[in-house]
Amino acid sequence: MANSIITITNMKKQYPEGKGKFTALDDINLSINSGEFTGIVGPSGSGKTTLLNIIGSLDVPTEGEVITLGESIGKLTHRKAAKLRNKNIGFIFQTYNLLPVYSVYENVEFPLLLLKMSASKRKKAVLDALEWLGLTDKIKSRPGQLSGGECQRVAVARAMVKLPEIVLADEPTANLDAENAHNILKMMSKLNKELNTTFLFSTHDEKVIQYLTRQILLKDGKVVG
Description:
This protein is of the alpha/beta class. It has a single domain, classed as 3-Layer(aba) Sandwich (Rossmann fold). Helix content is 35%, strand content 29%. The protein has 7 helices and 10 strands. It has helices spanning 48-55, 78-88, 104-113, 119-132, 148-160, 178-195, 206-209; strands spanning 4-17, 20-33, 37-41, 63-68, 71-72, 89-93, 166-170, 198-203, 214-219, 222-223. The strands form 2 sheets. A 6-stranded mixed β-sheet has the order 6-7-8-3-9-10, sandwiched between helices. It has a 4-stranded antiparallel β-sheet with strand order 2-1-4-5, covered by helices on one side. Helix 3 packs parallel to helix 5 (148-160) and helix 4 packs across helix 5. The radius of gyration is 17 Å and the shape is globular.
């Protein structure tokens, strides 16, 4: 498809296990288009995080091909994979991964320091991201002074600040209560519509599933629906 930004063909991922191999993903074929709000849905241990990590160039396939934003993940050098992530992919994790000694502003700015961007452009991008996520009043706070919901909003702002083409969100609501989970999901849905950012979730949370426009069902390392 012309607007497909993730294409996976006959992909297998195996890891050494004892004297043999454990197959985490088997014969995966997928296509995800620009602007989708999609989730890889399945129980724990089904291979969701592994699939997300390969799409995001944090891991490589054992067999087959994964093309993300025109790049064949298995053929990238470490440097080119890092460049792809730094410039074009935002990551949101269930554990927030915020730097505790940094302020909210500094945590959101951090990905931009890896890009060759002027200080004035960085400042505008950070302030825009904080405004999108309703965090302007928390700009000088540190993560330890924030609630779980606020920490996850900072994590979303950090993922969005460079205006990535793709955001990969791995169980982003796992540590949130229902109200905060819905607030985060509404914000992400709004950013998806307004900025046309492609969101791809890994989840088994019903709260997330009801927001998805498409579900990819994964079971025992295979796409089943």
